[in-house]
Amino acid sequence: MRYYPIFVNLDKKACLVIGAGEVGRRKIQSLIDSGAGHVTIIDTQPAPAEMSMTLELDNVDFFCREFLDSDLDGKFLVIACTSSENVNLRISQLCDERGILCNIADLPEACSFIVPATVKRGDLTLAISTAGQSPAMTKRIRRELQDYFGDEYAVLLTVMGRIRPLMLELGLETKKNTAVFRALVNSDLLSAIKEQKLDVCREILKDSLPQPLHANISELLDGLV
User: Fold this and answer.
1) Are 50 and 61 contacting, i.e. CB atoms less than 8 angstroms apart?
2) Total Cβ atoms within 10 A of residue 90
3) 3-state class of 17 per DSSP?
4) What are phi and psi of 112, to 5 degrees?
5) pTM, 2 dp
6) What is the pLDDT of residues 57-67, one digit of tens each?
7) 19 and which of 10, 12, 82, 142 could share a cystine (Cβ 3.0–4.6 Å)?
8) Average pLDDT rounded to a whole number, residues 13-39
9) Residue 182: band (very low, low, confident or very high) from pLDDT cuts 50, 70, 90
10) Is the per-residue pLDDT at 1 higher than 80?
11) What pLDDT digit, counting tens, does each position of 31-41 carry?
């Protein structure tokens, strides 16, 4: 099956995770890290000690009981990773009937979406999927990407994020803004960041940015290089 790649905004969205075992805890943390509005957790066993900090969060609720059909009410996204395949398949069917995004651990055929392997560098997220054909290949590609994309990419993205609103405030034509952004990402700024060459970073920004923003160069790099 060929999947449609998508990044989902979970802000203010209600999510549900059934099963808080090792896999479930990873899924829960990924939802929290992705800014989920609220995460409900259901497990037939008491929450393990390692979840204590997670359960203190205002947007997390834990219920020690069996899954109920009504648990799906109002949910945007559901992840089922219980030890019972029958329970997982039942949840999958219910979500399908209600049009709820659903992921079932280790049963891709029962999922409406799968969670790809990812490499993260700050705001940069690279997702890898082989459509289930070769998890080993997915892992290899992930390792290669981790080696290639270092922390300098996160820093560059932060700098670009600081520049963007300043550029928009100048009120220049879109094509002029685009030219500046392209010049920056195709410059040696990334290499200068990687090598911690602050003076070179400043010179590149001075050469690339409109003159009114030259006074902002120090703050653009503040705490980053």
Assistant:
1) no
2) 15
3) strand
4) -90, -15
5) 0.85
6) 999 999 999 99
7) 82
8) 97
9) very high
10) no
11) 999 999 999 99
Task: Kindly list the domain boundaries of the chain, sorted by start residue.
Answer: 1-115, 152-221
Question: Which residues, including other chains, have CB under 8 Å from residue 128's CB and lie 6 or more apart?
Answer: 116, 117, 118, 119, 138, 141, 142, 145
Rounded to 5°, the CA angle 159-13-71 comes to: 150
Residue 208: half-sphere exposure toward Cβ, Cα within 13 Å: 24
Q: Which CATH topology does 1-115 take? A: Rossmann fold (3.40.50)
Distance CA 105, CA 81 (A): 5
Distances (CA, A) of 208 to 46, 86, 215, 217: 57, 59, 13, 11
Q: Which residues lie below 8 Å from residue 103, measured CB to CB, with a gap of 6+?
A: 27, 77, 78, 79, 80, 111, 112, 113, 114, 115
What is the residue whose two structure tokens read 């054909």?
133
